[in-house]
Structures are given as structure tokens and as C-alpha cells.
Amino acid sequence: MRFISETSSGGVPEQLFTLGDIPGVLWTPEGAVATRPLVLMGHGGGQHKKAPDVLARARRFVTECGFAVVAVDVPAHGDRPKIEDYDRIATENQARVEAGEELAPLIAGFQALVARQTVPEWRAVLDAVQQLAHVGVGPVGYWGVSLGCGLGVPFVAAEPRVRAAVLGLGGALASAEAAARITVPVEFLVQWDDERVPRVQSLALFDALASAEKTLHANPGKHGEIPAFELESTLRFFARHLG
Amino acid sequence: MRFISETSSGGVPEQLFTLGDIPGVLWTPEGAVATRPLVLMGHGGGQHKKAPDVLARARRFVTECGFAVVAVDVPAHGDRPKIEDYDRIATENQARVEAGEELAPLIAGFQALVARQTVPEWRAVLDAVQQLAHVGVGPVGYWGVSLGCGLGVPFVAAEPRVRAAVLGLGGALASAEAAARITVPVEFLVQWDDERVPRVQSLALFDALASAEKTLHANPGKHGEIPAFELESTLRFFARHLG
């Protein structure tokens, strides 16, 4: 793990790093020295580790909960090189949708492909970040919707350090099998008028989760329109399970 | 409106009253003198105005939010006399379920019948309570699940003073038409394994609400097993919309 820069943004220390060829960012409370809960955040499709919504959420987790937050670029996103296979699949999928195929199964197939790479990457990121003195081996949470859900479900299923997860904007096609191996508390976000994930698929993914405590929050609006008050709920959810 | 007793329970002043032949209870903060938000709570089937869960919720609303809370017995519940027609319908429904009929439409039909009486009663209760100096004409909220949803949906639809409502454990059969006239913010509770209200009916009632802000919270478990953390969410919901 190699640190590239250390700055502070809005009172929140921010460290850019690389782990092998994975570019990442770590946010921690000002003056942090001891072990604390760590939240790994997965970004959305076409976004990156410092997308505005990731950054806004990270700052709240750090300043209001005292958590550490880490985010890395998904392959072919942010500061990572393009991947020809991914570009080819995206172009093919675009053509298939134009020819009348359903979008959801194509998204699901793509996310399953990417997850095979990101699950081990994210586990390695946890290994590395938890060795830092100002993070340490505390409880781990995961936050990710949309692509961050498609990649997050297999990650949470595979990683016993994760004790609670916020997931959503994702369907059963991508990851119902992995969801059935998740037993930690989950807060699951659904957009009632999601134009990318059919409602029935969202409900089926929630249904598939094996967690004894899981709570579905559905709100009107399209894929990208999660209301601001859900962030308040997320903060309390993580505070309850990681704090 | 006639006050029968004035006591204090756990630091929360409690006034029993009758309004005509409707027995009710009003909780207000200690030493309250001015106008404040008022929450009307509808109790569940077979319960009454001072059922333990109503009381627990009322105390939190009063002590944490400074609200006034009012609850009255539904006809044929609590301190109100039995109603022969209701008893007859209940007996008939029991026989029809045993003969293989579905329960949900029978519950829905019964709730629609009772609502024709409770909607005007509850509106009269608001009129009376808001004339009290320690309540006044502030914003009004409604809380009710199960029977409290079946009666609450037509009440909220009819009563423009209600600015926000928590509803749930109810289905579209009872009240989809009234739901389509509700435009205030709603938090809607669904029990994922509800043995009384089919999941598809719950989702359809949420869908029918015309509110621009409505949020569905679904949790695993049976009809009566809403998790305790939903009360925290309810408190914040009302604080946001009535506070």
C-alpha cells in the first residue's frame, strides 16, 4: 500500500493511495489514532472513488460517526485504464438493447463478470487498510447501490468481516445466489420507479437475502433519485450495527 | 368534551375524556401551555386506546418531540359497547374463512364498514382537542397500522389538517380508492411475512398513495412483529414533517 497524497477537505483528512494497481482513497477523523469502524463504499457505474455522492456520504460517516471510510476505483473506472473486453461488452449490450433485448439481464451479466475481479480486490483493500494504526481491526460495513450493489452482494457474501451493509438499486438476476449467503443486517434501497432495475427484480433480491434483520426502504422516483433523508437513515443504521 | 381524570404516568400527563359517547385519552408534555403538533393514533383490531404499544409510542412522541397525542376507542373496542352487527359479521367471516374463503377481502370489507363511523368521529376529536390551550391548532399527524391503517387511510384522505401519516400492515382491497386521494408524506410499514395481509396487497396500497413523498419500510416477520427500530424512524419522520 503506497500513499500518494494527504490532504484535508472540509476538516476531513483524505489520503489517496494505491494498492498494487488499485487506486483508492481513505477518509478518517481529524487526529484519529485508534481502532474504529471502517465502511467500504462501492461507487456506481461510470462513476469513481471520489464521485460527489461518495464524498458527501464519506464526510458524514467520518464527522458524525467517527468511522474510517475507504473507496477504490472499480476496474475501468476513475483512474484505472480502460478494459477492452468491458468496452466490447458495453458496445454489444447497447446494440442488443437497441434491437429490443431487456436491459436488466445484460446489466446483471456484466456486474457478475466485474465482481469476479472486485471481490478479491476489495478484500485485499480491507487487509491493507485495517493494518493502519488510525483504522485498525474494527467492525466493517459496506455501502453500495446500483453497480455498488451488483458488486457488493458477492463481496458481502464472501467477506466475514462485514457486519452490516447498505445495498440497493439492484436486482435478483445479478446476485440472488450470493444474496442467499448474506446473514448480516442489511438496509436495502429501492426506487419505486427505477427505469433500470424492474421493481419485481429489486423485491426478489431483498427477498433472497438470508439476513434475519433486513429492512427495505422504497421511495418514489427513478434510479438516481434516492431522497436525501435516506442518508440520515443510513447513518443511524451503521451507528447501530458498527458503533 | 368532558374530562374524566387527569393523572401522570412516567412523567407524562394523561387526561381521559369522553366526546359524546367516544372515550379518549390525551397525552401532553408536562407543563404544556402553548400550541403544538398533535398526533392522532389509531389502535389495532381487538385493542384499545391505551394498548401497551399505543402508550409506549405516545410517551416517546410527547417526551422526545413535545407533541400532544390523542387516541380514542374504535367502536366496539375498549370502553365502548359491543355492536351486534359487528359481532355477527365477525362470526360470519370466521365461518367463511373456515370454509376456505380468503381472509384479506373479509378484513377489508369490515374495515371499510367501521371507517364510515370512525372518520367523522376522529374529525370531531380533532375539532375538540385543538380547542384546548395546551394543544391548539398546530400541525396534525396520524399514526395507525393494521385496523389503524384500514381506518386511517380514509381518515387521512378526508382530513386536510393531517400533514403526515404513518400507515401500514394494510392492503389495497380496503382502501386503495381513498389512498389515491392522499397527498401528504407517508411512511408505510410492511411486514414481509404478514400472514393477514398478502404482500402484493400491501405493495399495491403503497403504490396507490398519491403522495409525492412516500417511503415504504419492509421488514421480515409476521403481522405483529414490526421491529423496535421502526419507532425511531417514526419519531424522525414526524419530527421532520410536524416539528
UniProtKB/TrEMBL annotation, chains A, B:
Keyword flag Hydrolase: yes
Annotated keywords: Hydrolase
A single MF term (Gene Ontology): carboxylic ester hydrolase activity
Hydrolase recorded as keyword: yes
Family statement drawn from the similarity comment of this UniProt entry: Belongs to the AB hydrolase superfamily.
PANTHER family per the UniProt record, alphabetical: DIENELACTONE HYDROLASE DOMAIN-CONTAINING PROTEIN-RELATED (PTHR22946), POLYKETIDE TRANSFERASE AF380 (PTHR22946:SF9)
The protein's name in its UniProt record: Alpha/beta hydrolase
Organism placement in taxonomy: Bacteria, Bacillati, Actinomycetota, Actinomycetes, Kitasatosporales
